[in-house]
Amino acid sequence: MLTIKDLTVSINKKQIIKGLNLEVKEGEVHAIMGPNGSGKSTLASVIAGRELFDVDHGEITYMGRDIFELSAETRAREGIFLGFQYPVEIPGVTITNFMRTAINEKRKYLSLDPLTIAEFMELMEEKKKMVDIHSKLTDRSVNEGFSGGEKKKNEIFQMAMLEPRLAILDETDSGLDIDALKVVAHGVNKLRRKDNATIVITHYQRLLDYIVPDYVHVLYDGRIIKSGGKELALHLEEKGYDWVKKATVSTNP
Amino acid sequence: MKTIHSDLTKDKLLDIYHKEQDAIRGNATPMVNRIRQHAFSRFSLNGFPTTKQESWRFTDLTPLLNTEFAFDFTNKSRNVDIERIFTCEVQDLDTYSITLLNGWFVYQNAPLTQLANGTIIGSLAKAMEVYPEIVDEYIGKAVKTEQYEMAALNTAFFQDGLFIYVPDGVVMEKPVQLINIVNAEQPLFLQPRHLVIAGNGSSLKLVHCDHSLTHNVSFTNTVMELYADEQSSVDHYKIQNKGRNSALVTNNFFYQKKGSMIQSNIITLNGGFTKNMLDVSIDGTNCRSEHYGLYLADSNQHVDNLVNIDHMRECSTSNQLYKGLLDDQAKAVFSGKVLVRRHAQQTQAFQNNKNILLTDDARANTQPHLEIYADDVKCSHGATVGQLDPEAMFYLRSRGLCERSARQMMMIAFASEIVDKITIDALNNRIGNMVEKRLKGELSICEQCVLHCNSKEPTSFNIDLSKL
Questions:
Q1: Nearest residue in chain A measured CA to CA from B415
Q2: CA B357 to chain centre
Q3: Burial class (CB in 10 A: 0-12, 13-18, 19+), B366
Q4: Across residues B118-147, what is the average pLDDT?
Q5: Between chains, do A90 and B392 touch, taking CB under 8 Å as contact?
Q6: Tens digit of pLDDT for each residue in B214-266?
Q7: Cβ–Cβ gap B409/A97 under 8 Å
Q8: In this structure, is the dihedral angle defined by the CA atoms of residues A90, A95, A100 and A102, taken in order, positive or negative?
Q9: Residue A89, domain extent
Q10: CB neighbours of residue B462 within 10 Å
């Protein structure tokens, strides 16, 4: 589904990602872990189509297409979803209006008829239940005055509405208490299907107790320095990132 | 009808004033004519405002006066069947509707109406004849002709306009709607005058719509005087949807007494040149004074809003929020001043102006200003000029909205903060709708006009109003 080959990305001439390779197949959950500043969020942003970064080298293909030929909105309509680490507040835009426009623009792109108001409301009610969002939240402006937990729940709600094929969750666990974390994880798990994939970017192992990954990658200084199964996350939690750094240095003298 | 050849200058206006004195003085009360004479002296001293003055620094009237304007000192509009030329598009808006055509009251045998609750609504020219004692008590009191040259000019020349008197304790459930239409073959120079009096403990909602029905050049210089007596409540909504060749200068003077509440909302959707001046004297304690503005301008449109709020007494609150979206080469000016006098302790005054420039060529000049002489006050001011938030743009696009939709959604959201302040539901919905259409490039002044120049099937239109 997603193949990243030898990707090099910089911002203001400073290299952030320095030759990264990753392969994500349908039905898989990948966790990308790493310390602050290792390039996790940059990777997520580049896949989603943020124009802030310069891609110096390498390629990303998504469903067989060169991703750099697609605008951010086309990527979204083709099924890529980015759950933001810091969801943006947009005063005056209600979640309902936002989601209705998003869904109908996607449907138009796929040559489907727009959802009627009734169909849309029904869909929204169903998804709200799924992520345990109380009803009034969707009448409010996007993220405006939301608590940290509400913002992240809102991301998962949007994900549920848009039913992406590839969801990238950027530090969705940051700032969440354990109850909110469970709700978010529960939502993500419910949305798992054989034909979609999830990339979970996280700092801590905690989230991975609830969203169990098939693969864990350690991103350090713009490169994936170690990959493994879900047990890798536990090792990291126990021994810290220094352990991987040292291990890597010793195996690559 | 008097036509001025070549530019309209101070000297030419003085000349007209002298030659047409009888027509201008008309049936006005002696008091009104004294005020008129005083204002005329003011104008002959000061003339038109120039860019050398602080409040006109970014707004130059000179090019607009470079037209052969016609003046009209007799009412030719009184018997026009207004419904044949204009129907308000706001659905479900149940109002007492009043129309001014080319500055004159269109009245169909009813120049003044007294409602069962005692409220008087109608033509100011007629009110000067029938209720001279009410007119004389109020007219000109809050109008600072020394400070506002255009208000002096209006005071010297005005003939007609809206008159509303709401007696003490009367709550007007239905809003009053004033529709100001300009429709003439010749370039007209109009100076309507409105006098609104809200008695003790009364309540009034006033909707004031400025339209033009032709693309002809026109210059409107209007004065609105609003007196809010003790404990009264007045909402004043101005909707400006004028043609590109129109110039609109509005001078608004609000006078507030103890415990009164005024909310004003000026929405400028279209117009070639617009300058709104709002001067509020808060001459009472425990008043609320809320003033909102929204201006949407594109091509070479010019919108200037000036707000002066004078806190004369203690414990009152004022709030200003003006927002603008500027496209193409449009230019906006905002200058706001809050004066808190020495005795006006425990005043709360807030002022904010936010502009979004959609192109590199659009411009906004903003000057918020506080002048505080009291020491126990809570005041703040702020101004921003910026672009649409790129972070928010990316957020919307990452959910599949195209750039155009994302921009529109954010612009509509930006504007909605002002539209949402409108407390008349039908109007709120409709204005929201018009703003949306405007931002999508679908609204033109033609939308309201029976001429339908742009539609495929032309509507027949037999009355040539200029020949009436």
A1: A92
A2: 24
A3: buried
A4: 94
A5: yes
A6: 677 889 999 999 999 999 999 999 999 888 888 999 999 999 999 999 999 99
A7: yes
A8: positive
A9: 2-251
A10: 5
User: In B, which residues are within 8 Å of A146 by CB distance?
Assistant: none
Cβ-contact B167, B117 below 8 angstroms: yes
Chain segment A50-89, per-residue pLDDT in tens: 988 999 999 999 999 999 999 999 999 999 999 999 999 9
Q: What is the mean pLDDT of residues B309-321?
A: 97
pLDDT at residue B336, rounded to an integer: 92
Please identify every stretch of chain A with a pLDDT value under 70, giving residue numbers as ranges. 247-253
What CA–CA distance (Å, rounded) separates A226 from A234? 14
Neighbours of B395 (CB within 10 A): 25
Q: Is the per-residue pLDDT at B445 higher than 60?
A: no
Asked if A109 has any chain B CB less than 8 Å from its own CB, the reply is yes
pLDDT of residue B77: 59
Separation between Cα atoms, residue B159 and residue B157, nearest integer Å:
7
Amino acid at the residue A141: S
Please tell me which of the candidates B395, B398, B415 has its beta carbon nearest to residue A90.
B395
Chain A CB within 8 Å of residue B394 CB? yes
* Cβ-defined contact of A92 to B416 (cutoff 8 Å): yes
pTM: 0.85
CATH code assigned at A187:
3.40.50.300
Backbone angles phi, psi at A60, to 5 degrees: -130, 125
User: What single letter denotes the amino acid at residue B50?
Assistant: T
A145 shares contact with chain B (CB less than 8 Å): no
CA distances in angstroms from A83 to A87, B86, B98, B214, listed in the order given:
8, 51, 54, 51
What are the tens digits of pLDDT across the range A54-63?
A: 999 999 999 9
Order of strands across the sheet that contains B203-212: B104-105, B96-101, B176-182, B203-212, B233-241, B261-270, B288-297, B317-326, B348-357, B378-386
User: Is B384 within 8 Å of chain A by CB?
Assistant: no
CB of A139 within 8 Å of any CB in chain B? no
Q: What is the pLDDT of residues B355-378, one digit of tens each?
A: 999 999 999 999 999 999 999 999
What is d(CA B323, CA B296) in angstroms, rounded to the nearest whole number? Answer: 9
B361's CB contacts (< 8 A; 6+ apart) are B328, B329
For residue A77, the chain B residues in CB contact (below 8 A) are: 400
Distance between CA atoms of residues A165 and A167, nearest Å: 6
B409 CB neighbours in chain A (<8 A) are 93, 97-98, 101
What ipTM was assigned to the predicted interfaces of this complex? 0.94
Domain count for chain A: 1
Considering Cα of A220, then A225, then A227, then A231, what sign does the dihedral take?
Answer: negative
